[in-house]
Amino acid sequence: MGVIIKQSFKNMITTYFGFGIGAVNTLFLFTYFLEKEYYGLVSFLLSAANLVWPFMAFGVHNTLVKFYTSYKTKEEKDKLLNLILLLPLGVSILMGMIGVYSYSWLLNYFDAGNELVKPYIWLIFIIAFATAYFEIFFAWSKINYQSVFGNFMKEVFHRLCVTILLFLVYFSVLSVEYFIYAMMMVFVLRAIAMQLYAFSLYKPSFTLALPTNLNTVLKYSALILIAGSVATILLDLDKVMIEHYLPIENVAIYGIAVYIATVISVPQKAMHQIIHPLTASLLNSSDKSSLKDLYKRSSLTLLVVSAIIFVLIIVNINELYKLIPVEYQISTTIVLLLSLVKLFDNMLGNVNSVLFNSDYYRIVLLFGVVLSIVAFVFNLILIPKFGILGAALASFLAFAVYNISKLLIVLNKFKMQPFTLDTFYILMFVAGLTVSFYFWEFPFHPIINIALKSILVTVIYIVVALRFNFSEDVNQLVRKYWK
pTM, whole model, 2 decimals? Predict the structure, then answer.
């Protein structure tokens, strides 16, 4: 875990820096510099692109991580890398042709509701294509155990560029329409930068020769395409369906709550960059003992780190909403439901890496397809009835079923589970800390209240976590940097 913790810590710092910039954009710059309708438009375009890009990538970013270490010669590795580069291009061209022929249908789809979206529909394809290749080249760097630069580009670069663009809009240098086009170009430039970095780590010899186990690779890519897309679909489906049932500004309002809750997932995202290829390597070498140890320790470490973030969000949410325009404020219940989803995700440790790099990914595929349909039905029923609260409830139910399914699959097939008695103690402590501080408000400015409450909660949490040794890996990291 030493290398994992070291790179994960660097990635977590980078990711939180990016999320800090994103928080300023999401909570303040977008809400004050753009009209609600255009903020909702931006949120919709990015959510729709997130639904599309996994299909363009055709799962090859996961395929690369799984199969790369199984090849022993440079020639075979180069054949795999060439396939990884060409396959998404072919799929994207096919999807582009379908998009061209169905463009008039898409325009008619938006006639009945949010017509503001119509001129920008084609940008979804460009953003999705750029994101697909960015993820492929990011995986390229991860198989070389270099994830820090890619993580910076994934979490910081585009948010920093958006900050600059928003200020250009504020100072009337850019119109809102050109801002949206410029934002699209940011994603294209990010993909190009990631490609140059990946090639600097390892540039294959280009050939049209195909890897020897082509059928296995293609079958895995096709299946993992759906299985690996489930989390993305479950995450962004609600926002896309909100746009269909409610005025588009509701996408922005709901998106703020989603972004706040997503901060909890930062430790998991940071650790995943390095733990994913390592898990694949352990599975390829059949090292079950190390795999089991990694499963438990990653779960406990992620829970310890993400739990304090969960507490800070919930106890400060009312004060935080006082800092943004009234029209963007929503029920605390929505943030709580979405935050619980993210906390549960962290508790699973490296379960996704175990499943997607094992021979049991077909089972995940089956559950994923079923749960995507269930999530669609949940949103179909709950959004018209409860509005954005219904979207949050649908996401909570869908992710709860999905995560429990993954836990049961790993328990059944690998005879291991990530939880210990410490997991229960941490959850009880977190629940008590949250309830104790949620109703305690200081009579000061919201920023001062947030700072005071955050300091008190953090100090109490760190003292208890270190005293009772919630996670040995976290304790070692704290001692190292404390010195």
Answer: 0.77
